[in-house]
Amino acid sequence: MLPKSSASQPENLQTTKDKALEDVQLKKIADRGRKSQPKKEIKSGESETPTHFSRGSSIAEQKIEELKKILGAHKREHHLIVLQDFPDPDALSSAWAYKLIAEQYDIKCEIIYAGALSHQENIALVKLTSLPSQRWSLQTIKGKDLSLYQGFVLLDNQGTTSQLVPVLEKAGMPLLSVIDHHNLQGDLKSEFSDIRPYVRSTATIFTQYLQLGLLDLDSSISQHVKCATALMHGLHSDTNRLMEAKEEDFMAAAYLSKFYDAQLLNAVLQATRSKRVMDVIERALKNRMVQNNFSIAGVGYLRYDDRDAIPQAADFLVTEENVHTAVVYGLVHDEDDELEVVIGSLRTNKLTLDPDEFIKQAFGKDSTGRFFGGGRSSAGGFEIPMGFLSGGNENGTYAKMKWEVFDFQIKQKLLRLVNPRDNPISSEEF
């Protein structure tokens, strides 16, 4: 997601003009475009990439029929929608759409995440639209009676970026659905799956569901308008304001243009950065090293609530002249659960660099076979738990040593791929 800053009056006027032009273009596209399953195992490496848009449409129709059967088979149940620990607009909006769809089958859904909403736009989105989401920390879920829920759903993630999934699996809760636009992260077993890496956002997939009749949006219903606004924000954020969009994404945006609230979306986008976010960006600028057009910066220790300052700093560094890729990382401490994790974000404008491949090759897998990170077009992220080394930061000397060790190790793993002199793999592959 690109950082948004307060704009001067002339810039706001230009934004309004651009928005009006974009709406006209979307409406034109919309006018042109109006013409129970057994348990399924998804194996890593499989994909359903269409050769053209019409095949993509047929896949959407097929998936909708499958999803209808699954929802019909689970009427009047209570489900959990599990998002990544730090959900973005794409995840939040998709979860809201799923919740509204499930309500038609008398299925109650709770949208949960383990981390925090720290990015100013995510906070604004949830507050201004009253988007129904809850934070369940590891301490919170321990006090929950999980027998009240008959299954869980993964949206915009495949369980590798949520602390809650292992707890739910241990409790024996079945995985009902996985809907995502990222590359496959491993082997999954679910009753329903719709994983389409060739689509730029999960919001696009859900908008297709709406278009094809899973839910009839009504512009007179406030909740529908707000959900459409959230989906438009999710779609825009994951396609870099449609600059990286494909035909399906444009068609989805065209459909949403008939329902979303432009003023509400503008209010979300105008959310300002906090001083703490600016401090992290300043640290990234101070600590960055640039090699072969890669900018790499460690920002030290961060509070858990400030985690989203890391991708914002990466968004900022990638705009520097002669830099095509930025990686920013820091050591994040969750005081509630006494957990520490190294969190990093990658942003790139290099078309031949695959963030998913790059991050997986740089950091590999944990002991269970799960990758420490992954990505999509132009963006990626990674999380490395501290484990036994967590805590002890009240000792300043120890805390400094711990950070220096992790900072050095991460830089070495990145430079192995960035610097061709030390890397047997040709940089042209990225």
Automatic annotation (TrEMBL):
Feature: compositional bias, Basic and acidic residues: 16-46
Region (Disordered): 1-58
Compositionally biased tracts (Polar residues): 1-15, 47-58
InterPro entries in UniProt: DDH_dom, DHH_sf, Oligoribo/pAp-PDE_c-di-AMP_PDE
Domain DDH: start-end pairs: 81-234
Protein known as: Exopolyphosphatase-like protein
Protein source organism: Mastigocoleus testarum BC008
